[in-house]
């Protein structure tokens, strides 16, 4: 179950369970074997805050009441390091601090309410488990390099729609052109396939295109219009440049994404934004207006440990324990909101234990379900994993589908047929 708690503040999510695959059918040509595949929990094994401070953060109210007879409180004691004065900050830092001061109380009170609710239902870990760490798969990190190499292949006619290529379940190792065609698994079961000499899990009814922004036309030419588009752009920042973990995109190129060509009337557009004030302002004031998207809400993803503490101090001047999501609607002339859709609230929190894997965001499927029409088409841009009934695009689009990220155990064919066994539930 992905949603642990929902209340007026937002949602407490179990991000690990969102990645689980119900059953995998691995075929060797003569027989099928079925497995329960679980995204390895050690990737969500954050036991302590990244920066230790003297604070009682988000404690179980019952425990704290027994200790001091008071209601649970979050003590925001300042770190010993001298806090910089506002006069010492540059323009961007001042704007970031002003934004933080506006939303700090919401993060504080909302997180406390969600953590307390998680305690009441027994979600939080009190006894920390010992976990044997395993190496992160190495080969899947070459995906972006493969996309660069694919640019040397003969060019396809961008004006001609490329047909969707379908997974052949009778020959799972059959070669696929991942760079010029949208690939789909049309079946109601996850299949494990060999792609570029590595093993990957393709969820039921998933579609994906692996390319960079220069080769996105197969997605546009396919003709599908989407009711939900989620973006996690590789924003430019100093940390990315120093680490060299992935290639970033300047704002001018992000602006060139063909979102209006992909959006249906009334499409909900959601963009993950770093805590850099410049990026948030760009999305609100330039990117969304350029696409014809009206800003309607800002949500916050709050990151906590497995015991419910902020991963960074809330008053940290560098790293914050939250990230921003900007939500909007594509306002085409014929856009009509379905009566089945709820109005998107202007402010909500998503609280979860983050993955230790870089840029591994929680899925938004379950929380966005009430705000999308029935039988919607959903698209994720700059994706690094796949979801059932979604289309995903990016130069590392199957990164976290590598079989090395999953543990497995053998199970019986639950339905006695390889076509319908173990469908992974999804709303889109």
TrEMBL record:
GO terms for biological process: methylation. InterPro entries: DNA_methylase_N6_adenine_CS (IPR002052), MT-A70-like (IPR007757), SAM-dependent_MTases_sf (IPR029063). One of its GO terms (cellular component) is cytosol. Residues 76-86 have a biased composition (Basic residues). It comes from the Eukaryota. GO terms for molecular function: nucleic acid binding; RNA methyltransferase activity; site-specific DNA-methyltransferase (adenine-specific) activity. It comes from Triplophysa rosa. Keywords: Methyltransferase, Transferase. The keyword Ion transport does not apply. Residues 59-91 are annotated as: Disordered. This is Methyltransferase-like protein 4. Belongs to the MT-A70-like family.
